[in-house]
Amino acid sequence: MFADLINRLTAPAPATLPDDDARLALTALLVRIARSDGDYDSDERARIDRIAATRYGLPPEEATALRGEAEALESEAPDTVRFTRAIKDAVAYEDRMGVIEALWSVVLADGVRDPEEDSLLRLVSNLLGISDRDSALARQRVEARG
């Protein structure tokens, strides 16, 4: 179903993604981080829906539909390293920094900093070209918002 998008993401020199595809890929990354601890719960799904609604100006039902598509894409996407590097090459830096904040928001949604989620988020941050320091600052901003 998502073969064309995955092929474009993993091409040797991926082009910048159209907005709809970038939304889907970035939301799939949120799903991947939420699933990384083996407990993809309703708090995490609701947080992803809120992030999509706010970030992309979507009504709640469209945000939920986007998450549903992202869940399917995430399950078909290649390993995290290839998938994240592909997103880095196809998405502007400013959008990637916003994604780190969104990822921290999902990780912290259930009130628990799971070691698997922390580890994956650190890997993803580095693969997206975001330093550990900037990722930590993003986490602090998310924690301050509550």
Spatial gap, N to C terminus: 37 Å
Q: Supply the CATH class.
A: Mainly Alpha
Q: How do the SSEs run, as a string of H and E?
A: HHHHHHHH
Q: Which spans have pLDDT < 50 for at least 5 consecutive residues?
A: none
Work out the helicity level.
over 70%
InterPro entries: DjlA_N, TerB-like
Pfam families: TerB (PF05099)
Domain Co-chaperone DjlA N-terminal: 23-140
Describe this structure in words.
75% of the residues lie in helices and 0% in strands. Helix 2 packs across helix 4. The termini are far apart. The chain is mainly alpha-helical and 146 residues long. The protein has one domain: TerB-like (Orthogonal Bundle), CATH 1.10.3680. The protein is built from eight helices and no strands. The longest helix has 17 residues.
Question: Could you give a quick summary of the protein structure above?
Answer:
By secondary structure, the chain is mainly alpha-helical. It has helices at about 5-10, 20-35, 40-55, 60-75, 80-90, 95-105, 115-125, 130-145. The protein is built from 8 helices and no strands.
Which features does this protein show?
TerB-like, mainly alpha, DjlA_N, 146 residues, 0% strand, 75% helix, 8 helices
Chart the SSEs and their pairings:
Blueprint: H1 3-9, H2 19-35, H3 42-56, H4 60-76, H5 80-90, H6 93-107, H7 115-127, H8 132-145
Helix pairs in contact: 2-3, 2-4, 2-5, 2-6, 3-4, 3-6, 6-7, 6-8
